[in-house]
Amino acid sequence: MNMKTKKTLGLVLSLVLIVILADSCKKDKPGNTTTGPVNVTLGQSYGGGIVGYILKAGDSGYDSAHQHGFIVSAIDQASFVQWSPNGINSLTGATGRAIGTGKSNTTLILAAYGSHSNAAGICDTLKLGGYTDWYLPSLAELDSIMVTTGPVVGFTNAEIYWSSSEKDDSSANGQSLAQAQLYPAGNYVCLKSVAHPVRMIRSF
Questions:
Q1: Which residue, among 187, 103, 95, has the nearest Cα to 144 in the 3D structure?
Q2: Measured torsion, CA atoms of residues 59, 61, 63, 68, in degrees rounded to the nearest 10
Q3: Of the given ranges (28-42, 129-143, 179-193), which has the lowest mean pLDDT?
Q4: Which of 131, 184, 120, 153 is nearest to 42 (CA)?
Q5: Around Cβ 113, how many Cβ atoms within 10 Å?
Q6: Model pTM?
């Protein structure tokens, strides 16, 4: 094999390798949790909604090298919906209240109740802005968003919104903008059979 043939063969092999590598890497598509370094500001439109909270030191999931936080849908997903379908009174295990527990709470609620006619189910089944990884926020997540950007993302003082945090077999925690901003340590304990608005979030 002469030198010219070797060079030609090497070029062909290089092109084949490039094609294989390109085919194995796909662009990230909406529907998955937003990943990678980002630089956003509170109230900015991003990732299918509005940046409602940016994690800070002490928050679960905080990374000093990369921004992470919560994207809030720009509108309510339901004006009034029950926490449990048809007012079922049973424990789901969704007792997480802290930042970082909303997603796992939602998973537990769906496992217990399914996705029909309940607050967590609405978040799980809706596709918004091309994304499908929305969930019902935990109490601390809901609190943090309301205190930080509540009026910006459209929360109103009067309405009590559902969180994914379960209190007991018949009740769960809710929060209003007025309560969160005046008394951040306080919250509402609401019967699961009572209908309240829902606002879903996703992580970035």
A1: 187
A2: -90
A3: 28-42
A4: 153
A5: 23
A6: 0.81
